[in-house]
Every structure is written in C-alpha cells, then in structure tokens.
Amino acid sequence: MEAPPFLAACRREPVPHTPVWLMRQAGRYMPEYRAVRERLGFLALCKSPDAAAEVTVTAALRLGVDAAIVFADILLVLEPMGVGLEFTRGDGPVIRRPVRSGADVDRLAEVDPAALGYVAEAVRRARAALPARVPLIGFAGAPFTLASYLVEGGGSRTYARTKALMTDPGAWRALMERLVRVVAAYLNAQIAAGADAVQLFDSWVGCLSPADYRAHVLPHVRALIAALTPGTPVIHFGTGTAGLLEAMRAAGGDVIGLDWRVDLDAAWARLGHDVAVQGNLDPVALLAPIPEIRARAAAILDQAANRPGHIFNLGHGILPETPVDHVRALVDAVHELSARR
Amino acid sequence: MEAPPFLAACRREPVPHTPVWLMRQAGRYMPEYRAVRERLGFLALCKSPDAAAEVTVTAALRLGVDAAIVFADILLVLEPMGVGLEFTRGDGPVIRRPVRSGADVDRLAEVDPAALGYVAEAVRRARAALPARVPLIGFAGAPFTLASYLVEGGGSRTYARTKALMTDPGAWRALMERLVRVVAAYLNAQIAAGADAVQLFDSWVGCLSPADYRAHVLPHVRALIAALTPGTPVIHFGTGTAGLLEAMRAAGGDVIGLDWRVDLDAAWARLGHDVAVQGNLDPVALLAPIPEIRARAAAILDQAANRPGHIFNLGHGILPETPVDHVRALVDAVHELSARR
C-alpha cells in the first residue's frame, strides 16, 4: 500500500493531494465532543482510553481529514510530578504548587511511566479503530511550554517568572533536563502504542527572544528529539515563532509547524525546502463565510506551490465558536484545490 | 547646535552615542509617577496638561534618556467618538458601546479637534520645560489597534470580531478612513505644539496574518503617514510583528520599532539598512540583575554594529514591577557601551 498522504508529506514524498488535519479537531466546536463531555469531565475524558479514543476517531472520520490526533492535553505529564495540576472551568489550567527555584525542581516527583499509561492505551485503541489510511498522531508539550506552566502556575502574559528562572542556569537546566526525560519517555510510549507520528507543542515559546531560545531552549529540544524512537516523523510546532524559525529548525523536527502570522512561502524559504512545513490558516478565518474560507485556503496552497512536504493545518487550534460545516468546507476545499492533475 | 542624538538617529546621521528612551518611561514603576497618581486618576492625569507635562519631563530627566514622550494614552482619541471609553482599575480599558457593523461606524461622532487639545497643550508645556537637547516625542495609536479596541470593546485574545469586520470591506474601510483622519489631525496638532518626532503604536497588529495586514491595514497606515506634517520623524511600532516587518516598512515610517522576538540584526537586514530601527530589549530583562541587563544591552548594541540609525529601546513598555535603578542602569549601559571612540 502507498503511504497515506499525511505520512508521505512528513517525508516530503509526492502526494495525490495536500493532506490536512486541524489542531483541536476533537474539541468543543463539535456536537459529538460536547455530548461526551456532558457525561465526563475534561480530565476524566483524558483518562478514559475508550472515551478518548472515541472522540479521536469520531472527529477524524466526521471531518474526512488525513490524520487523527489522540485526544489528550499537553499538561497531563505534569500531574504525576505532584505539582497540583487542576483544570478549572473557565480559568484554564492551574498549578497549585508552582516551581520557582532549584529547590522546587529538586522536589518534583519522579514520574512513573505507568502513571501516564492511559494515554498510550488511548493511542492503542484509537489506532485499532481507525482505518489504515488514517495515520494517528501522538503529542506532548515541549519542555519550555511545560516549564512555563510549572513556573507561572498557569498561563501568563509576560512569562516573567519563567524568564527569571532562566537566569539561574543550574535550576533551569535541571528543570529542562527533567522535562526532556519525561516527555521523551511519554512520546516513545505513544509511538510504541501505535502513534504514526508525533507533534511537539511548544505553544508559548514565541514569548522568547531568539537569543533566549538559542541559549535556554534549543539544546533541550534537540536532546528530546534525538531521544525519540527513530523512523517516526516529528512535527515541531509553536505560535508567535516568526522570529524563531531558523532556531526551531536547528533544534529539529521533520515538519515545522507555522502559525498564521508568517507568509508560508517566506517562512518555508527561511527554513529551507529540505524540511516539511505544516500550516498555516488563521483559526479565526473559519468564522468567515465559506467562500472566504475557500479563498484563504487557496491562497495558502498557492504559497506552498505544490512543493513536496506541505501539510495543511490551522496556525493554532480550532476556536470553540467555529461552525462544524465551516471546518468540513475547509477540509474539502484543501482536498479539491490541491488534487494533483 | 548639533542635532540631539535621538533626532540624528531617526535620520540615520552619525551620533556620539546610541540614543535610548524607553516605552512607558513615565509609568507605575516610578515613585514620582505613583505620587502624582495618588492625587489624580489616570484620565484626569492625561487631561491635566500641567501634570502630564510634569510626569513627562520628570521621567526623562530622572533617567537621563535621549528623548521624552508626552504622557497620554493611545485610546484618548476614541473618547470624543462617543463610544463610552472607560479606564477601569485592573481590567484595562473598556469601550461600552463597541463598533460591530457599518451602521455602528456611521454612528461614530465626528471628532472636534478641540476635544483633544489637552494633549497638544501637554506637548507645549513639556516642550517648554525640557532642555533643548532632549527631543519630545508625540504619539498616537495606529488605526488597526484603535479599531481593535473599538470593535472588541477592550483587549482580546483572538481579535475575532475585528477580523470579522474586515470581511465587510465597506464597513472596515469606513472605520479605518475615519481613524486615519482623526489620528492624522491629532498627530499634526502635537507636531504643531512642538513634538519633535511622533510614534505610531500599532501595538496589537501582530495578531494579523501578513496577507490581512497587506490588504486591510497597510494602505491606511500609508495614507496616515502621508498626511503627517513633513519633516518630523515618524516611528512605526508594533509587537509580534516578526512576520510583518517588510509590510510595515512598505506602509512607512522613518524608524521601524522592533519588539524583542526578533534578532535586531536579522530584522534590520530584512527591512533594509536605509531605514532606522528602534529596539529591542525584552522588558522582562529589566527584572534581572544589573550585570545581566548590561550584557543584554551589549548584545543588542553588537547586533546594531554601530550602523547609523539605531535607537535603543525596549521591545514594549516598562513593566510596573521593574526597579527604577535597573532602568537607570540600562540607560547608563547603553550610553557607555555605545560611546563612539
């Protein structure tokens, strides 16, 4: 069998059409997802391999996308570290006992890989339920973004405390090395359970200057990617990264994820065409009328110019208020407009 | 008399040292400012030309910076439009009657230039009180950023409503043309009152894709800059603009303001060295110990490489928790490290 288009594109091989999937494709915008959430809280859903696999597969098949992504959360790896992770309704995630010093880092609990076994199990069940033509993506938060939650105790506007910890090189390195170890084991477990590719979400790394990224993040991401099971494509994604692209490329990944705040063609030229790219429609564009969505998809495909190695996606996750038929219209538009004649 | 270093740098002329000033240099981090705010609310301070001039001049002289910037707020121009602007403590600015449609745009009140006369008067008094060697900067919000507040009713994470209004080209154009007219008159009044340069704050324009910027923002900024009194340097600033630099340059400005999320040398090369640049230290860096601040200032000066046309600044405003002696240390470091031998 030929490789599915998504995996072929990860390897910059020819594809019959540009593959497309969408970050947060199993999410609140979708009635089937909301129905599951009526009986299960967010964390309970993540921890139920059957339910997590169900929303994973339903979203992929309902949309007709070229890849599924296991339903989980980037912060799950932090829970067994004993920092008091809670998902509060409305306020987003909270870390009750944030990490602000080297002593705090030393106090982090060692993660027993079995503690996160439910995610690998969801991967296993979703993989078993998906058609062979639909690859399954595993994922994890990248060390910087995880560290930012641990240090700030939640989201942040300035990341001042995280940047302050960076000025204590020993403490910062200890924290990053701990996270690299945990995340590598976690992603390798997902790969062993059947994930066909993995995505590293460095969602908030765009708050850093390029110099800080190179000094305090790049070496750790590089070590993490080097520790992953060879042969499985790695997508390396962040937002607000228009000034970091070359450095993210240097850190590694078979595919670099682009948000919407760069022109795809200019960004790809900066990265080099010997790496694949994923992106890069503004999630807000999915709120516009369908003809406008199609026009925007066409503009991105024009920038990709049929080069091997483009995976269509949004620049960040689907917004909860997005109409489902707009999402489907985007998937159809990408497939139609990119069909190789 | 030789031109002050700040004005010389705006024109890319040789300077004895790299000029430096800091966004929000008259702000909550400074005890003298907090003392004035104990007797005057924020809006009352803006509307008192004597008090506004006082905090403007005090900050510049206390820090020893190369330019003062008139104390005001980018949203003041919206107040006479009758949209119910309020500065609420803690929550930031609120627009009680947001603009969501073409009809809402038509209902905006025409701005009587006299309604904003207090800012020009503050410019006049600050200019009179400042030594001749310290230029005074006037400023205004740029049309997109002003529109984003008008449409969202305050700050926003996604700017979904603002982007939605962009898909109604008639309404969007009407709104932007209105704002261009008001802002041009407002800045020209500041110039007539003695402002030696003006800065356009397109603070939130970095939420846009480059394509949206080119289609819906660039022509209006260009029209605005073309309408300003010739001969006065214009600084064109935004944050999160690493993907927009070429387009901002095309829109205009003698100086392009850079935030901290780009390498200054790479950004300047993309812009072209025939335009001046301002920036670009991470405001969070001012919370670090002074030797670290000096090292970071040196790194930015190294990137600027003594090219004519660099004005040192932060990548955004000074954070309220910043120690005053750190700010002074930065100013001194820039002067010492850049002194031309």
What can you tell me about this protein's structure?
- The structure is a homodimer of 341-residue chains.
- With 341 residues, chain A is α/β, with parallel strands linked by helices.
- Chain A is 46% helix and 12% strand.
- Chain A contains 15 helices and nine strands.
- Chain A has helices at residues 5-10, 31-39, 42-46, 49-63, 102-107, 117-129, 143-152, 160-166, 169-192, 210-216, 218-226, 245-251, 264-271, 290-304, 324-338, and strands at residues 68-69, 85-88, 92-95, 136-141, 197-202, 234-238, 255-257, 276-281, 310-314.
- The first copy, chain A, has a seven-stranded parallel beta sheet with strand order 1-4-5-6-7-8-9. In chain A, strands 2-3 form a two-stranded antiparallel ribbon.
- In chain A, a hairpin with a 3-residue loop joins β2 and β3 (92-95).
- The model of chain A has no long low-confidence stretch (mean pLDDT 97).
- At the A-B interface, α8, α10 and α14 of A face α8, α10 and α14 of B.
